[in-house]
Amino acid sequence: VYQIIGKGALGVAPFGIDYAAYSNYPLGSKYTDRRMVEPFAKIYDVFAPMQRVWAKWAFEGRTHGVAEGDDRAPQTVKLNGWDVYLEFREFQFGQRAELPNKNDYPDGTEQPSGGVAIAQIGPDEFVFVGQQIRVKLSGTGPNAGKPNGYARVEEGHFDADGKWVMERNWNGDQTDHGLNLPAAPTVLKVRMGSY
């Protein structure tokens, strides 16, 4: 869903997820009740209050999206002045290379479930909506070779009028290894700084 919304779609209605006594498993969900739509519903709930502002950004070509592939490989999104490097199956703190057991993975990542939709809302400002993903930014173009870092990382939501509402500020421990979005869909507003 993140990849589709990030590419400008207004929504998605995958085949075979309607409430009926029919299941197209193994091609689709084996469930025919609420469990079938819950993964989509959680994401749509996060996007619902920001749908107008997100549609505007998408129309202006400012949005991008990524979904975790079956190969779990890192992905890069190239934006104006910034590259966004995305990793999957990482713990919220530390790097996989530093772990004593390299085969230890966060719970809930047994199947590909990570993704993020990105909006570049200013030269150095972004909105990330996603889950089960690590986000890192590095300068390119006018920011190439300059020291840079997170000037501000806010977790929050957009209200019904499309205004940003900050719920909390992420501190250094939460950003040292990148922006680690948890299992629940999360919205971050990020401002980068370079000098």
Please summarize what this structure is.
By secondary structure, the protein is of the alpha+beta class. 16% of the residues lie in helices and 34% in strands. The chain contains 4 helices and 10 strands; from the N terminus they run αααββββββββαββ.
What would you say this structure looks like, in words?
This protein has 195 residues and is α+β, with helices and mostly antiparallel strands. The strands form 2 sheets. It has a 6-stranded antiparallel beta sheet. It has helices spanning 2-6, 34-47, 51-59, 172-175, and strands at residues 63-67, 75-79, 82-87, 115-122, 125-131, 133-139, 148-158, 164-169, 179-181, 186-194. A hairpin with a 5-residue loop joins strand 7 (148-158) and strand 8 (164-169).
- The global form is globular
CATH superfamily: putative beta-Galactosidase from caulobacter crescentus
- Mean pLDDT equals 91
CATH topology: Chondroitinase Ac, Chain A, domain 3
Strand count, sense and barrel status of the largest sheet are:
6 strands, antiparallel
CATH architecture: Sandwich
For the secondary structure, the number of strands is: 10
Q: From the alpha-carbon coordinates, what is the Rg to the nearest angstrom?
A: 17 Å
**Largest sheet, spatial ordering of strands:** 1-4-5-10-7-8
* Helix percent band: 10-25%
Q: What are the secondary-structure elements, in order, as H or E? A: HHHEEEEEEEEHEE
The count of helical stretches stands at 4
Distance between the termini: 36 Å
Q: Please, how many domains?
A: 1
CATH class: Mainly Beta
The share of residues in extended strands comes to 25-35%
Q: Structural class of the helices, strands and pairings?
A: alpha+beta
In the predicted model, the low-confidence regions spanning at least 5 consecutive residues are none
